[in-house]
Specification:
The protein is of the alpha/beta class. It folds into 2 domains: 161 residues, ATPase, nucleotide binding domain (Nucleotidyltransferase, domain 5); 164 residues, Nucleotidyltransferase, domain 5. It contains 12 helices and 13 strands. A 6-stranded mixed beta sheet has the order 3-2-1-4-7-13, sandwiched between helices. β8 and β9 form a beta hairpin. α1 crosses α2, α2 runs parallel beside α3 and α8 crosses α9. The longest helix is centred in the first third of the chain and has 24 residues. It is globular, with a radius of gyration of 20 Å. 52% of the residues are buried.
Length: 377
């Protein structure tokens, strides 16, 4: 396949917030050309969300063959097929217009290796083979496997797409892209845009710890618009305790599981003060991440659900010492960047272009990846 060929790809993302499936269309050569098309979000049904929670618990407990995981695989696969069908129906797309699907799946376990002589594990459920079979479109899945087998962290995988988006804007300095989902990850794009000089890592918790606290303390699934945090006061002692996590002192590249941080330091706080403290914690871990960069960036672009939380955005703006903009402020769609990313990665996978790099996942050398499933007759 010619590496200059432009393909139409459909990308999926189901994030650790467990809100559902994002689907997005991208036309790309897998390198500098990116034309973003229509997108759609399909919320998980309550039964699917509950089953994914149960599957995650089973995976964390080492019960790999649990029936909860088997059922979650089927439900997650069906949700992705439904999302693709609804997107194609809504925007009058024929399956023959889509060259490839990038299917990430739903992460239920992410455990990077603790030492160089160990192998990590990253487990995304959902069947790319069944998606290909049902939609009759070729699918790439299992993006992280080859990176992990080669000694990488298996995450983050969005930096190469962030780099393409930033490079298209030709900024006069280094820019950081911060994606705030369940976990927050930073991509440092140097001024020259050189792929091998990108740095990326998970900075710390994103929304995940805040959501967990809300469920525990109020029963609500999330802190809508940061309202609870806005009514509380940051407990500086608890914040200092949270910041003692050994992960925060590790040099990147490094990656997290959503469940790596615990709520113990704030369990004595009121719901509002706990939300305020955890929101400050997310912002403070991002500020601390600047110490790992070659130089401070000239600006930050915020993607993911966290950008909708004004309290978190204010906390970032107060700490980062550089302009903080939402993805939309620079012409991106912050809700669908990760889905777009896996469309882009699917094209790179088809063209045997690397998906991960030494300074993004700790893989020893740039690494291709993905497993191909034929969907067309």
């Amino acid at each position: 396949m010619s590496n200059s060929r432009v393909l139409t790809a459909l990308g999926f993302m189901a994030g650790t917030s467990l809100d559902g499936v994002d689907a997005a269309i991208v036309r790309t050569d897998g390198e500098g050309l990116v034309e973003v098309g229509p997108n759609l979000h399909l919320p998980y049904e309550a039964t699917t969300r509950a089953m994914v929670v149960r599957a995650t618990k089973a995976a964390l407990e080492g019960r790999d063959s649990a029936d909860d995981i088997t059922q979650a695989v089927d439900m997650v696969t069906s949700a992705h097929i439904n999302a693709a069908q609804k997107l194609m129906e809504k925007h009058h797309l024929q399956r023959t217009e889509i060259d490839i699907i990038g299917f990430h799946g739903q992460t239920i376990l992410h455990r990077p290796a603790k030492a160089r002589d160990q192998r990590g594990r990253s487990w995304q459920i959902g069947s790319g083979a069944i998606v290909a079979q049902e939609l009759k479109i070729d699918v790439i899945d299992d993006f992280r496997k080859q990176d992990i087998e080669a000694g990488g962290e298996g995450a983050p995988f969005s930096p190469i797409y962030h780099q393409a988006l930033v490079r298209a804007q030709n900024p006069e300095g280094a820019v950081c892209v911060l994606n705030i989902g369940g976990v927050a990850n930073v991509t440092y794009v140097p001024e020259n845009g050189q792929i091998n000089e990108m740095i990326a890592f998970d900075s710390g918790p994103g929304n995940g710890l805040i959501d967990e606290w809300l469920v525990l303390s109020t029963g609500a699934p999330m802190d809508e618009d940061g309202a609870l945090a806005a009514s509380g006061v940051v407990d500086e002692t608890a914040l200092r305790m949270l910041m003692l996590s050994p992960y925060l002192k590790r040099n990147p590249p490094k990656s997290l599981d959503r469940y790596d941080f615990k709520l113990n330091p704030i369990k004595h706080l009121s719901p509002a003060d706990g939300a305020a403290t955890l929101t400050a914690f997310t912002a403070e871990t991002v500020r601390a991440s600047v110490a790992f960069l070659p130089q401070p960036p000239i600006g930050w672009v915020i993607c993911g659900g966290g950008r909708h939380n004004p309290v978190l955005m204010d906390a970032l703006a107060n700490r980062l010492g550089a302009p903080v903009k939402k993805a939309e402020d620079v012409g991106w769609n912050g809700d669908f960047i990760e889905a777009e990313c896996f469309a882009y990665l699917a094209v790179r996978s088809l063209k045997k272009l690397p998906l991960s790099f030494p300074k993004t996942t700790r893989v020893p050398h740039p690494k291709c990846g993905g497993t191909y499933h034929k969907g067309r007759a």
